[in-house]
């Protein structure tokens, strides 16, 4: 019986988390859409600050991850394609693979580790040092004041970062194709974009949009429910990163399946 | 006393799981007075304070703040009441990411349509009251504990509230800074006619600032009265508490038999 009780408790606990996160999502949308109607705007400078932190601040790390990933895909696919003398197909392989899959997912994972963790740690610290309570006592809603700017920043900046990652990744593949496989640069780029359909790009961007929602909500949720001092903040940060990673891969799988069956 | 009642608690009960934290507290606070709630650590005084400002809702009983019953209000109505009060937190609770000036001016920027130049003047005036004019540009991390509490105080009064709540305003401060804070609380209530509710277990400040005192013990009100009445109280628990003696009816240690049993086990 003990085992069943434990399993039941875990399932119930998970369900409660899901319900709470969905509730946070609904609240966030409420303040985003209905707040301005009630003349309670979200401060544009705090959205801007978060966009700079989440987006511009992530450029360097996304650059390196995407560039090296592009190089790796190019080399790995050249290894196979060389047998068929089809080296030129390295170009679309890199471009399509990045746009559809690796661009959005790798960018989201990097941002979850960098920005999601920072959100959870910051809000967690604010929670344990009574700052969230202070906001509420001043009749300032923490969701409007803290969650909405972070949510908006990630939902806007993550797709931007993804486009950037796609381009940098293609450049990485280009370096291998031109300098190692001795392909003609002009032909490499023509092939890259010839085989890449508009669909490949926008499905990738839809994914990164969903990942942006996921990372910001998970980070804020874990931060706001922090309890128990410094240890609690540490736990919240870890949980936020782990949960975001799992959810990103899960949603990626679901969305890929969805696009696979609907967008033939 | 026929003075206007600003805060009224009626039989407030609150449980966290199995533990009863507040066990039927009733009291009234009158306009303009400085009302101190004292009691040992864990007696529920901070929890009670959170019920008074509407941050927590009682399981049963009612809290009236500025004439409104808090649990009957919706979010907007509660916000309206909250704009008329100020709260100074135990840990100061300044926003780390904002400068001192931004911390103090935040409620004004969010809740009023005042011009920036007017807000700047108000912030300077409030910081002057707590003796920190000129510190607007510093970050909270650059301040000492006592300075942070004074900034928190300036922030609590920036909207010219009718009631200010203080959660352990002098805890963890050196005696001189504690004295300065006590004097500030007195000044505020005398100069601005603010009603103050102070939660503390610092006996020195209790007797220097209080108009009336309530002593809580295990979620109940033991006694309410003026400092003189409390000092002359016949209640042994009250006497033990204000004198800070380890022996008396309030037990700090568990029973001896229990201890022996646990050691052997």
Describe the model.
The complex is a heterodimer of chains A (264) and B (265). Chain A is mainly α and 264 residues long. Chain A is built from 9 helices and no strands. Chain A starts with a helix and ends with a helix. The mean pLDDT of chain A is 93. In chain B, strand 4 (60-65) and strand 5 (68-69) form a beta hairpin. In chain B, helix 3 packs across helix 4 (116-129), helix 3 (100-111) runs parallel beside helix 5 and helix 4 (116-129) packs across helix 5. Chain B contains 10 helices and 10 strands. In chain B, the strands form 2 sheets. A 6-stranded mixed beta sheet of chain B has the order 6-7-8-3-9-10, sandwiched between helices. With 265 residues, chain B is an alpha/beta fold. The model of chain B has no long low-confidence stretch (mean pLDDT 87). At the A-B interface, helix 4 and helix 5 of A face helix 2 and helix 3 of B.
How many helix segments of chain B?
10
Q: What is the number of strand segments of chain A?
A: 0
User: What share of residues of chain A is helical?
Assistant: over 70%
- Which sequence of strands runs across the widest sheet of chain B? 6-7-8-3-9-10
The shape of chain A is: elongated
- In oligomeric terms, what are we looking at? heterodimer
End-to-end separation of chain A: 48 Å
Greatest contact between two chains:
A-B, 13 and 21 residues
State the helical fraction of chain B. 25-40%
The run of helices and strands of chain A is: HHHHHHHHH
Task: Report the sheet-strand fraction of chain A.
Answer: under 5%
Round the mean pLDDT of chain B to the nearest integer and report it: 87
Order of helices and strands of chain B: EEEHEEHEHHHEHEHEEHHH
- Count of helical regions of chain A: 9
How far apart are the first and last residues' alpha carbons of chain B, in Å?
57 Å
Radius of gyration of chain A: 21 Å
Report the β-strand fraction of chain B as a percent range: 15-25%
Helix/strand class of chain A: mainly alpha
Unreliable parts of chain B: none
């Amino acid at each position: 019986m003990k085992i069943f009780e434990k399993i039941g408790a875990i399932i119930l606990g998970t369900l409660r988390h899901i319900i709470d996160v969905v509730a946070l999502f609904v609240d966030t949308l409420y303040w985003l859409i209905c707040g301005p109607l009630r003349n309670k705007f979200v401060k544009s400078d705090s959205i801007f600050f978060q966009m700079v932190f989440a987006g511009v601040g992530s450029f360097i790390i996304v650059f390196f991850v995407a560039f090296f990933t592009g190089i790796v895909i190019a080399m790995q696919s050249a290894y196979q394609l060389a047998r068929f003398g089809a080296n030129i197909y390295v170009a679309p392989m890199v471009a399509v693979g990045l746009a559809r899959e690796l661009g959005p997912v790798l960018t989201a994972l990097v941002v979850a580790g960098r920005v999601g963790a920072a959100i959870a740690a910051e809000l967690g610290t604010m929670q344990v040092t009574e700052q969230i309570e202070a906001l509420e006592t001043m009749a300032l809603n923490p969701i409007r004041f803290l969650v909405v700017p972070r949510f908006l920043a990630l939902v806007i900046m993550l797709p931007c970062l993804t486009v950037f990652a796609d381009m940098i990744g293609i450049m990485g593949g280009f370096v291998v194709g031109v300098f190692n496989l001795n392909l003609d640069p002009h032909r490499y780029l023509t092939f890259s974009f010839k085989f890449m359909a508009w669909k490949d790009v926008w499905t990738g961007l839809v994914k990164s949009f969903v990942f942006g929602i996921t990372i910001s909500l998970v980070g804020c949720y874990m931060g706001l429910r922090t309890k128990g001092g410094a240890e609690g903040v540490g736990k919240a940060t870890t949980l936020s990163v782990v949960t975001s990673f799992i959810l990103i891969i899960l949603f990626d799988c679901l969305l890929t399946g969805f696009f696979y069956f609907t967008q033939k | 006393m026929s003075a206007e009642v600003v805060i009224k608690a009626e039989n407030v009960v609150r449980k966290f799981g199995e533990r009863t934290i507040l066990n039927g507290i009733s009291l009234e606070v009158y306009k303009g007075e400085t009302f101190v709630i004292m009691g040992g650590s864990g007696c529920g005084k901070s929890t009670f304070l959170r019920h008074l400002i509407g941050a927590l809702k009682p399981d049963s009983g009612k809290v009236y703040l500025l004439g409104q019953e808090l649990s009957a209000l919706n979010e907007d109505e509660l916000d309206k009441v909250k704009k008329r009060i100020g709260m100074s937190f135990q840990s100061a609770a300044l926003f780390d990411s904002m400068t001192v000036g931004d911390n103090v001016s935040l409620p004004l920027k969010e809740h009023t349509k005042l011009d920036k130049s007017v807000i700047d003047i108000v912030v300077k005036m409030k910081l002057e009251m707590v003796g920190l004019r000129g510190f607007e540009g510093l970050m909270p991390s650059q301040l000492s504990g006592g300075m942070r509490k004074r900034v928190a105080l300036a922030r609590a009064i920036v909207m010219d509230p009718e009631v200010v709540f203080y959660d352990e305003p002098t805890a963890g401060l050196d005696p001189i800074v504690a004295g300065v804070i006590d004097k500030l609380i007195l000044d505020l209530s005398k100069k601005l006619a603010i009603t103050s509710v102070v939660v503390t277990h610092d006996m020195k400040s209790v007797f220097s600032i209080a108009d009336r005192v309530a002593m809580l013990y295990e979620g109940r009100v033991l006694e309410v009265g003026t400092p003189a009445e409390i000092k002359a109280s016949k209640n042994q628990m009250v006497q033990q508490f204000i004198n800070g003696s380890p022996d008396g009816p309030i037990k700090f240690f568990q029973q001896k038999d229990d201890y022996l049993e646990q050691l052997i086990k």
